[in-house]
Design goal:
- The protein has a domain of 53 residues.
- The chain is 45% helix and 0% strand.
- It has 5 helices and no strands.
- It is elongated, with a radius of gyration of 36 Å.
Length: 131
């Protein structure tokens, strides 16, 4: 220990500092450590993040919600073909956007009823399972 003190003194004098004795910090007793909540404990405490500030720069708050569709391979291919067609028209759209375009462009008429009946017949969720 004496060698360490000598080296420390030599290093400090070499860099022009004066050697001053600083008493070590007293360790907190076990009762004080136990009374602290875990979140305040220095080894387990995590720095708290500041809440993000959101500036209103775009349209109003999003009101939609996610839904799940069950599509046959044929339907997925049709959506993909339409997305490719939109891309050829310099419109890059996702599958979700293709579906939105289609449902907003549909006009209710007798042809729509025929397509609806075809889709309902091909829906396998209505079939009774064979045991």
């Amino acid at each position: 220990m004496a060698q360490k003190q000598d080296k420390l003194a030599a290093l400090r004098s070499a860099i022009g500092q004066q050697l001053t004795h600083q008493p070590p910090k007293p360790a907190p007793d076990a009762a004080a450590r136990a009374s602290r909540p875990a979140a305040e404990h220095p080894k387990t405490a995590r720095p708290r993040r500041a809440k993000a500030v959101h500036h209103e720069t775009g349209p109003a708050e999003r009101t939609g919600k996610g839904v799940q569709f069950y599509l046959d391979d044929v339907d997925r291919k049709l959506i993909n073909q339409l997305a490719v067609w939109f891309a050829s028209q310099d419109r890059r759209v996702s599958d979700s956007q293709v579906i939105k375009v289609l449902i907003r462009a549909i006009k209710p008429n007798s042809e729509l009823l025929v397509v609806c009946d075809t889709v309902r017949q091909s829906d396998r969720r209505r079939e009774k399972r064979k045991k």
